[in-house]
Amino acid sequence: MSSAVNIPPQFEVVDRPLDTQMTISMGPQHPSTHGVLRLELVLDGEMVVKATPDIGYLHTGMEKLFEYKKYQQGIVITDRMDYLNPLGNNLAYVMAVEKLLELEIPERAQTIRVLTCELQRIASHLVWLGTHALDIGAMTVFFYCFREREKILNLIEAASGGRLTPSYFRIGGLMMDLPAGFERRVQQFQDGFLKSVDEFHTLLTGNRIFQKRTQGVGYISAEDAIDWGLSGPCLRGSGVNLDIRRANPYTGYEKYDFEVPTEADCDVWARYMVRMREMKESHKIVTQALSRLRPGPVKADAPKVVLPDREAMKTHMDALIHHFLIVAEGFDVPAGEVYHPIEASKGELGVYVKSDGGPKPSRVHFRGPSFVNLSALPHMSEGCMVADIVAIIGSLDIVLGEIDR
Amino acid sequence: MTTGANSENNLPENVTIDPTQNSTSSSLATALQRVNAGWITSTNLTFGETTLTVPREHIVSLCSHLKTAPDAQFDFLADICGADRGVEEEPRFEVNYHLFSTTKHHRLRLKVVLTEEDAHVPTVTGVWRTANWHERETFDLFGIIFNGHPDLRRILLPDDWQGHALRKDFPLRGYEPYSLK
């Protein structure tokens, strides 16, 4: 009877003595791995001896696809990488191409970019907070976070037409100007948001269970964090005061007044506190951006790169020709290579674009913050419990769409 | 709450404008050449970014020097990415190292060019541990071998994948539909 059934060797039942190590697979369907991350855990009892992340389940060859698309067509691919922070991806890619084209972006477009990107950062942090708390066992927070996130998604939808894949930024500016009444709607959101952050704090920060699950877990020192290339809130949670919006300011961030929150505890709790404080800072930046909005153009004065207005196309022959050429043939980008880093919600998002001079890039590479932050997971999780792994993954705030690309 | 930020002249105090730019980086290149004349074969300054082309046998010693030298302090390896210049190009491949300093906030790109027949480069995992996954990714997608890497396996594609997907001669849709063996 038994000879008829062919059991693959990895599923064979073996009697183990109690003191041996065991290798188990966590994911890729495990809900707390935030997508399709698989961890190979070597366990000694419930203690993790070694955790090896196995990624690539969501690999869709995006970097290859860029080489077959015109520059402006690449924008929609970027939306689908870090799908919780699509405007950040748009911005990094668009700014890299603009650097190659040496375009001047109008003031209003830059302000709107800051405004929407900070709203997106809050939305991204809200998903992180909701799912992180859910992983640890606090369910209520999730609903509070998604209630607020929904308001932001409605705002982004009003501006761009898309909730999760806005593709709002274009090479040379924006897709279109903000709709009428947008400022009022943002102000409405702003008025209620600080109270919501206080609600999150009431639910989690004073919670003894949450504190016990996060404090002292997933320790990584500042030197190790830099050596492992951590960035964003994970790095600032190790006490390193580094924010690319401050270190290498872009799209006008040098004009905004905000703090860079850091926490010196180097654990899951510190990363939690950094993100909670960061939401308030983003809220501050949105307020300032609102007050900076002045009427003006939202597209650069570059007729060979930027699509003309509909009205101009109907009245001007050359606008129509440019429109046809941009859509049909694309525009040539000067040969060269650039690396443009921005501070995305999860850390340093760098875009490397290499051009041969044609309408399609020769190479586009995304330095995803999630990819690098996840690579430090084995270092952080050595010697912890299996349940702590869940807390550590949550504190890294990874998005597999960006890791696997 | 932040009414003061409305006026243009009320800027935050600790703003540092990107000091990557030209004067510091060209002086850095000459300083490096003074330490070891063989380290840099060419310096390129475009779009406000400095690129140093490095012979591959010197990449590890140069990186260790850059990490600790007081005028460089490139303690943060932001990224490593490969690139395929084209099937006919010689040398065909390049590996770009994007360095960043968490204290001085400047950036630098190191470039190593490799031929197709001899696509080997020493690993820099001994200098920055974060290089591990970046090098695995570059190996996976370009087939560039990082000599001395502790764990050079495929990372994004399955272990039994044939070919290297980001090479220019690899078709966009692959050679055949992939199925688990």
Detailed description of the structure:
The complex is a heterodimer of chains A (405) and B (181). The longest helix of chain A is centred in the first third of the chain and has 30 residues, at 107-136. In chain A, strand 2 (38-44) and strand 3 (47-54) form a beta hairpin. Chain A has 17 helices and eight strands. The mean pLDDT of chain A is 89. A three-stranded antiparallel β-sheet of chain A has the order 1-2-3. In chain A, strands 6-7-8 form a three-stranded antiparallel β-sheet. Chain A has a two-stranded antiparallel ribbon with strand order 4-5. Chain A folds into two domains: 2-54, no CATH class; 62-404, Cytochrome-c3 Hydrogenase, chain B, CATH 1.10.645.10. Chain A is mainly alpha-helical and 405 residues long. Chain A starts with 21 loop residues before the first strand and ends with a helix. Chain B is α/β, with parallel strands linked by helices. Chain B has a domain at 18-122: Beta Polymerase, domain 2 (2-Layer Sandwich). Chain B has three helices and seven strands. In chain B, the strands form two sheets. Chain B has a five-stranded mixed β-sheet, covered by helices on one side. Residues 1-23 of chain B have low confidence and may be disordered. Chains A and B meet through helix 1, helix 11, strand 6, strand 7 and strand 8 of A and strand 3, strand 4 and helix 3 of B.
